[in-house]
Design brief:
The protein has ten helices and no strands. It is mostly helical. It starts with a helix and ends with a helix.
């Protein structure tokens, strides 16, 4: 999630100052990093799902075997999901939320169609749900890359973004910006992982763990509103600053960015 989160403000600021080449460069570099991380993650999760599951499941848990099969299939969608998230972030930076919405509606509908086919028709059971999601996300990824390529006016992103790694300065800037966010994300994941492991250990049948998962989903659903505000602010504030770069008027741009940030913070407190 770190790469997409940092992509939106960089694209927004470049777009606001009319730097089309900067938008293309940012998109390509972010996609390269997302692709590298996604590829490594996919290989690790597909190859050693039980190792990662043991972080939250006891070694003798009855759910370990089906969970490993599910994770192996689900991991096939890790790379396309990360690329899709990065493209989505680029669209947010361009202040275009309609295109990602249409793509998301399409591949979620495709996922709904594939679920019963793979779960029941092909007899894959719960693994079929994972494979359906991975296939739908792969289709969505191709759509995102195609639409973003048309929007930013460059060459096709799919066959070209992976050929040239980002500049060292870009990697350093992303690493610096990502450090605090990564620590926060690791802390959250560690807390959730510990709680999930404790819930699994309470009941070998998995009933209490299922109840915990349902309550966690409700908590995450409420967090969607806050994530939406965070995503909006990550694009709107740099866009306001970018207009100041274009017009050589830092004072008005800073004031506009501050008003946007204050408004988003107020809505966040209310939510």
């Amino acid at each position: 999630a770190v790469v997409p989160t940092l992509t939106a403000p960089r694209v927004a600021r470049a777009a606001a100052r009319g730097d089309d080449e900067g938008v293309r460069t940012t998109a390509r570099e972010s996609l390269w990093i997302a692709g590298a991380v996604g590829l490594c993650g996919t290989v690790a999760l597909v190859g050693w799902p039980r190792y990662f599951l043991k972080l939250v499941l006891p070694a003798n848990a009855p759910a370990l075997a089906p969970a490993a099969r599910y994770l192996r299939y689900r991991a096939l969608g890790y790379l396309p999901a990360l690329l899709s998230s990065t493209c989505f972030a680029a669209f947010r930076g361009l202040l275009d939320t309609a295109t990602p919405l249409r793509i998301s509606l399409f591949y979620n509908a495709l996922n709904a169609v594939l679920d019963p086919i793979l779960i029941f028709g092909c007899g894959l059971g719960v693994a079929g749900a994972a494979l359906a999601t991975a296939l739908a996300e792969s289709v969505g990824c191709l759509m995102y890359l195609s639409q973003l390529s048309k929007r930013i006016g460059g060459r096709k992103l799919l066959p070209t973004f992976w050929r040239r790694p980002p500049a060292r300065a870009t990697v350093k800037a992303l690493a610096a910006g990502a450090a605090a966010m990564q620590v926060r994300q690791i802390a959250l994941n560690a807390a959730f992982g510990a709680a999930t492991r404790s819930a699994q250990a309470m009941d070998a049948t998995g009933v209490k763990a299922a109840a915990y998962s349902i309550s966690q989903q409700l908590w995450l659903l409420a967090g969607v509103a806050l994530f939406a505000l965070q995503s909006s602010a990550a694009a709107l504030v740099p866009a306001a600053l970018g207009k100041g770069d274009k017009n050589d008027d830092d004072t008005d741009a800073t004031d506009a960015a501050r008003r946007v940030a204050d408004r988003c913070m107020g809505w966040g407190l209310f939510a």
